[in-house]
Amino acid sequence: MPKITAAFTVDTWEPSSLDEAEGAELGQVRLSKTFTGAVAGTSSVTMLSAISGAAQAYVAFERFDVSIDGREGGFVLQHAAFDDSFELKILPGSGVGELAGITGSAMVAKHEDGSHTLDLDYELAD
C-alpha cells in the first residue's frame, strides 16, 4: 500500500455553536483546505465537536477533489477523534473519477512551525 505525504493549508474556518447546555458544548465547523505535493487539490470538511471540562471529541467528513499519482478524482475521508485516539479512513465506495475504488487511511500532523501535513496510506483497484 503506497504511503504519500502532502502539505495543506486551512483556507476557511467557520465555527458555530449548536448547543451550550451544561456538561458539554456541541459545535460545528465548516472548513476548506488546499493540498500540495503528492496529493494536489482541495477539500471541504463538515465537523461536529463535543467539548466538556474533562474531554473533547469530534467527527467529520472531508470531501476531496484532488490528484493522486496523476489520477484525478475524489473521495470522502471519515474522521473520528477523542483525546486518546485519532482515526481517519477513506469511506469505501466514495472514490470517483480515476480514484474510483480507492481505500485506505490517513494521519494528520501539525508541525512546530504551525504547518500541517497529511500522510495517506491508500490502495487503488486496477
A few lines on this structure:
This is DUF3224 domain-containing protein. Helices cover 0% and strands 73% of the residues.
Please specify the SSE layout and strand pairing.
Layout lengths: L2 E17 L5 E13 L1 E13 L4 E13 L2 E12 L2 E6 L5 E2 L5 E8 L5 E8 L3
Pfam families: DUF3224
InterPro entries: DUF3224 (IPR021607), SO1590-like_sf (IPR023159)
Organism: Amycolatopsis magusensis
Describe this structure in words.
The protein is mostly beta strands. It has a single domain (3-123), classed as SO1590-like (AOC barrel-like), CATH 2.40.350. Helices cover 0% and strands 73% of the residues. It is built from no helices and nine strands. The chain has an eight-stranded antiparallel β-barrel. Strand 8 (103-110) and strand 9 (116-123) form a beta hairpin. The protein is elongated, with a radius of gyration of 15 Å. The two termini are 13 Å apart. The mean pLDDT is 94.
Q: Tally the helices.
A: 0
Report the end-to-end length measured between terminal Cα atoms: 13 Å
| CATH architectural label | Beta Barrel
Strands of the widest sheet, in order across it, are 1-2-3-4-5-6-8-9
CATH names the topology as AOC barrel-like
Structural class: mainly beta
The overall strand count is: 9
Series of secondary-structure elements, N-terminal to C-terminal: EEEEEEEEE
- Proportion of beta-strand residues: over 45%
**Domain module tally:** 1
Q: Indicate the low-confidence ranges by residue numbers.
A: none
CATH class, anyone? Answer: Mainly Beta
The shape is: elongated
CATH homologous superfamily? SO1590-like
Mean pLDDT: 94
Biggest beta sheet summary: 8 strands, antiparallel, barrel
- Percent helix, as a range, is under 10%
- C-alpha Rg (nearest Å): 15 Å
